[in-house]
């Protein structure tokens, strides 16, 4: 069976030609339930969705093109702005792709810091998803609880990088700075309370009859169709396909952490909800292991020692001529990866985030392409919401968890 | 599944299709003939021992000054074997067209539309090849290397007429 993915023009054309059996409705681009600037053109028969097409591109800022005129290190700040609910995951994907191109060795401590921060990021991203999803289905209080814990995570990011959201903390070669004093106790305080908080959200929703009515059986998709449509992340795992890049093609040493991949069965809104809730628990588990490792490591190694990539420490510059030259070269010209290309994908909170980089040997990338999971997951919307009520479409959009900054890039 | 085994399989089953291959950074990438591109993708998808059913990424690169000028890059993943393979197809400047993968992998739909929109690659057989990120009346394909940067003049009262005369909506 081929799955059709219509364009907005194909939906509106019959109505413009005078067809009157069905009605065409515009949802968005400014609509609270579209989670950003997304326009959905819906063909309706009464209140039943006959067909629909997402219209994207309202937030297109040419991030990939912009990167071509920045040096590799400066381009990191643009990656923050794609998936603005998970900037650290974007930083990591880009940094890994450049590191693969350069063949840089990353110290183990930097890897552990990366894992810890990215898992905290996953929790914070899932909390926004949970809050807004519940809000769309009129469960107001969950949003407030979710934001409360997200605030704690953003405080941790502010502590390490000085910024709450656009952190640009994971850089090519490692992470930007040494961890501040008070980082480990703050993280521990958060990890101690988080499992109880997840119980709290689940107590509000998991068995709630109103929640079940709006989610069970809504927006179901089977595993085969999900793979064909390119669904990834929790959306794919909810259908029962246990594909997680952290297990399938591990990066940053994920193979050394103990964690499970939660999967669902039916691939409906409720399974996606259960999978994401279980993922938060697994993220706490991974973050706890990373925290333990960090406690056992002496401070220092947060950046690679390859002076062609990372600037030397300040003391070295005052004493060594060579260090001064490296510093000058790095900040005026930037580093030059060898000619070639590299592709790296990671498991971002929204699914498989890929980064393809082509280098022509100059200090600026020749081409950067991002495989944005939100962009590709959005294709499945028509397949998931056809034949259901408009109110269910709202639930399905929320459940797919697209971030429009990443869709449009 | 490892790179060598898969490359051996490709050489055995599609001897005419392969132009070049390399394993830089531990990732297998194979440059294919344009004619064989769909057949190879289908072969890898349908083979019960391989099962490359997940099209992870599809994008286009403009190598201005090189022949062939464009390259379409496709990453296929076998979830079963936990292995990824990269296919590249070179396309000339005069005829940047390639058969569409949408009938095999529905997920290629948006990605091919993006490559069409930003890079101007035509995908033959695509059910609805329209612009996706840019407005419908946009002229040109901005991710091409010869697309002029910062060309747009800002319209004020004194130059508004002259600028609007060049806009697509004025020509209709």
From TrEMBL, chain A:
<dbReference type="InterPro" id="IPR001135">
    <property type="entry name" value="NADH_Q_OxRdtase_suD"/>
</dbReference>
<dbReference type="Pfam" id="PF00346">
    <property type="entry name" value="Complex1_49kDa"/>
</dbReference>
<dbReference type="GO" id="GO:0051287">
    <property type="term" value="F:NAD binding"/>
</dbReference>
<feature type="domain" description="NADH-quinone oxidoreductase subunit D">
    <location>
        <begin position="136"/>
        <end position="409"/>
    </location>
</feature>
<comment type="similarity">
    <text>Belongs to the complex I 49 kDa subunit family.</text>
</comment>
<keyword id="KW-1278">Translocase</keyword>
<keyword id="KW-0560">Oxidoreductase</keyword>
<dbReference type="GO" id="GO:0050136">
    <property type="term" value="F:NADH dehydrogenase (quinone) (non-electrogenic) activity"/>
</dbReference>
<comment type="function">
    <text>NDH-1 shuttles electrons from NADH, via FMN and iron-sulfur (Fe-S) centers, to quinones in the respiratory chain. The immediate electron acceptor for the enzyme in this species is believed to be ubiquinone. Couples the redox reaction to proton translocation (for every two electrons transferred, four hydrogen ions are translocated across the cytoplasmic membrane), and thus conserves the redox energy in a proton gradient.</text>
</comment>
<keyword id="KW-0520">NAD</keyword>
<dbReference type="GO" id="GO:0005886">
    <property type="term" value="C:plasma membrane"/>
</dbReference>
<protein>
    <recommendedName>
        <fullName>NADH-quinone oxidoreductase subunit D</fullName>
        <ecNumber>7.1.1.-</ecNumber>
    </recommendedName>
</protein>
<keyword id="KW-0830">Ubiquinone</keyword>
<keyword id="KW-0874">Quinone</keyword>
<keyword id="KW-0813">Transport</keyword>
<keyword id="KW-1003">Cell membrane</keyword>
<keyword id="KW-0472">Membrane</keyword>
<dbReference type="InterPro" id="IPR014029">
    <property type="entry name" value="NADH_UbQ_OxRdtase_49kDa_CS"/>
</dbReference>
<dbReference type="InterPro" id="IPR029014">
    <property type="entry name" value="NiFe-Hase_large"/>
</dbReference>
<dbReference type="InterPro" id="IPR022885">
    <property type="entry name" value="NDH1_su_D/H"/>
</dbReference>
<dbReference type="GO" id="GO:0048038">
    <property type="term" value="F:quinone binding"/>
</dbReference>
<comment type="subunit">
    <text>NDH-1 is composed of 14 different subunits. Subunits NuoB, C, D, E, F, and G constitute the peripheral sector of the complex.</text>
</comment>
From TrEMBL, chain B:
<dbReference type="InterPro" id="IPR037232">
    <property type="entry name" value="NADH_quin_OxRdtase_su_C/D-like"/>
</dbReference>
<protein>
    <recommendedName>
        <fullName>NADH-quinone oxidoreductase subunit C</fullName>
        <ecNumber>7.1.1.-</ecNumber>
    </recommendedName>
</protein>
<dbReference type="GO" id="GO:0005886">
    <property type="term" value="C:plasma membrane"/>
</dbReference>
<comment type="similarity">
    <text>Belongs to the complex I 30 kDa subunit family.</text>
</comment>
<dbReference type="Pfam" id="PF00329">
    <property type="entry name" value="Complex1_30kDa"/>
</dbReference>
<dbReference type="GO" id="GO:0050136">
    <property type="term" value="F:NADH dehydrogenase (quinone) (non-electrogenic) activity"/>
</dbReference>
<dbReference type="GO" id="GO:0048038">
    <property type="term" value="F:quinone binding"/>
</dbReference>
<keyword id="KW-0520">NAD</keyword>
<comment type="subunit">
    <text>NDH-1 is composed of 14 different subunits. Subunits NuoB, C, D, E, F, and G constitute the peripheral sector of the complex.</text>
</comment>
<dbReference type="InterPro" id="IPR001268">
    <property type="entry name" value="NADH_UbQ_OxRdtase_30kDa_su"/>
</dbReference>
<keyword id="KW-0830">Ubiquinone</keyword>
<keyword id="KW-0813">Transport</keyword>
<feature type="domain" description="NADH:ubiquinone oxidoreductase 30kDa subunit">
    <location>
        <begin position="30"/>
        <end position="151"/>
    </location>
</feature>
<keyword id="KW-0472">Membrane</keyword>
<keyword id="KW-1278">Translocase</keyword>
<dbReference type="GO" id="GO:0008137">
    <property type="term" value="F:NADH dehydrogenase (ubiquinone) activity"/>
</dbReference>
<dbReference type="InterPro" id="IPR010218">
    <property type="entry name" value="NADH_DH_suC"/>
</dbReference>
<comment type="function">
    <text>NDH-1 shuttles electrons from NADH, via FMN and iron-sulfur (Fe-S) centers, to quinones in the respiratory chain. The immediate electron acceptor for the enzyme in this species is believed to be ubiquinone. Couples the redox reaction to proton translocation (for every two electrons transferred, four hydrogen ions are translocated across the cytoplasmic membrane), and thus conserves the redox energy in a proton gradient.</text>
</comment>
<keyword id="KW-1003">Cell membrane</keyword>
<keyword id="KW-0874">Quinone</keyword>
